[in-house]
């Protein structure tokens, strides 16, 4: 996703760039419609390719979905790590930076939550679903580490249950996402996020 418009690809892209372009196209389509209704024909048409050309880069639709989830996972974890590294302050300040970075990522790519929720609803354990589950597990672990650091620093109340607080952190973001989906727009997510995190912070902060 290097700023390349999903509907105007240059000719003769290298294989890696063509795959990245396919991922961008799927996320663009997912922001417009139910991801379960996206066909390989629609992806190829938006990319101005034949389906045969698309399948030269992916063996099947499942492989395309896995590539999308791998991109989402890699980008989200990279942004979370960058936000944490750039925050020179308290663990609570780092938690807030991570929270806002996550919300900003979703606001920039509104097709992502549709894709994630769609994959998690699958009864079967598809490779894409496994990728999403692994990402959530990694994310929860990072949040838990920050909460433990907050306890050590005396910023997070000693009685706070870290696993529950990590679940609530993720759930608060998911709530903002659901509200955005109900409104049909992610525009207010950033402004709503500030108030939502303030409430979360009050709930876990140490009185001292």
UniProtKB/TrEMBL annotation:
InterPro entries: Homeodomain-like_sf, HTH-type_TetR-like_transc_reg, HTH_TetR, Tet_transcr_reg_TetR-rel_C_sf, TetR_C
Pfam families in the cross-refs: TetR_C_13, TetR_N
One GO molecular-function entry: transcription cis-regulatory region binding
Keywords recorded for this protein, A-Z: DNA-binding, Transcription, Transcription regulation
Signal peptide start and end residues: none
Gene3D superfamilies to which the protein is assigned, alphabetical: Tetracycline Repressor, domain 2
Ranges of residues in domain HTH tetR-type: 16-76
DNA-binding region, residue intervals: 39-58
UniProt protein name: TetR family transcriptional regulator
Species: Lysobacter concretionis Ko07 = DSM 16239
């Amino acid at each position: 996703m290097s700023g390349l418009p999903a509907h105007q690809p240059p000719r003769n892209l290298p294989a890696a760039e063509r795959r990245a372009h396919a991922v961008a196209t799927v996320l663009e389509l997912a922001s417009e419609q139910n991801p379960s209704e996206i066909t390989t024909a629609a992806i190829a048409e938006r990319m101005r390719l034949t389906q045969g050309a698309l399948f030269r880069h992916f063996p099947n639709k499942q492989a395309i979905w896995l590539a999308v989830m791998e991109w989402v996972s890699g980008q989200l974890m990279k942004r979370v790590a960058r936000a944490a590294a750039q925050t020179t302050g308290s663990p609570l300040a780092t938690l807030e930076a991570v929270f806002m970075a996550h919300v900003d990522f979703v606001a920039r790519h509104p097709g992502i939550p549709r894709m994630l929720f769609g994959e998690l609803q699958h009864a079967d354990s598809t490779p894409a679903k496994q990728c999403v589950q692994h990402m959530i597990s990694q994310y929860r672990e990072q949040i838990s580490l920050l909460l433990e650091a907050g306890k050590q620093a005396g910023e997070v109340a000693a009685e706070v249950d870290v696993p529950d607080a990590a679940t609530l952190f993720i759930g608060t973001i998911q709530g903002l996402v659901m509200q955005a989906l109900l409104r049909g727009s992610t525009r207010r997510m950033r402004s709503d996020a500030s108030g939502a995190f303030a409430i979360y912070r009050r709930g876990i902060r140490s009185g001292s």
